Amino acid sequence: MFMRQLLLRQGMVLPLLGMLIPMMAGLFAPGYSSIQQHMSELELLSPEISLACRLGAIISGLSIVGFAVAVILSPRPRMPFTAVTAAIFGLSMVSNGIFTMGSPLHGMYAIGLSIIVVPAFFAAELNRKNHVSLIASCLALIYMWALMTGMDPKPIHGLTQRIATIPMFGWFNYASFILIREQTSRVSVGGALNSAKA
């Protein structure tokens, strides 16, 4: 119970915070444009900038894997699809930090596309309406489609990536908060029932 709570609490902060590191690093990188260039391109610059970008991806990825473990440890509702797809996406982010852009292992052969379905699975397995998760899933789908088809405008594809990053990674912060709230309400209801029985 304590481990799950800890993993969910870090999930309220670290997934998006990890991605803010390369966003901020890009602002100080000479000759780099946050508007025109993707964050992964920072890995090809100076060792310090590259390290900041890689650390951000690893922190975010490990945090998302931690979120997946917390989901697995949840007594109810059972959310196997959410847990597995979140873990896959988290591992793909870790690989983004380990392998540089240009390597097929950067993103583990595009397995990071699993981000499209993680919020949708969460909404389905939560057993109640969750429009925020469905919207996050749709936004991820639209961005990934634009990216894969070349519809993402090249002169501003660094900016669109950063805009898309906020709901994609911020969703994990939101989902962690929802699961903490669900757990707290279950504990409160259980305590009230025990008091009534006494």
From TrEMBL:
Keyword Translocase assigned: no
Say yes or no: keyword Cell wall biogenesis/degradation present: no
Q: Keywords assigned by UniProt?
A: Membrane, Transmembrane, Transmembrane helix
Could you list the residue ranges that cross the membrane?
12-29, 49-73, 80-99, 105-124, 131-151, 163-180
A Pfam family this chain is assigned to = DUF998
Q: What is this protein called?
A: DUF998 domain-containing protein
The organism encoding this protein is Dyella dinghuensis
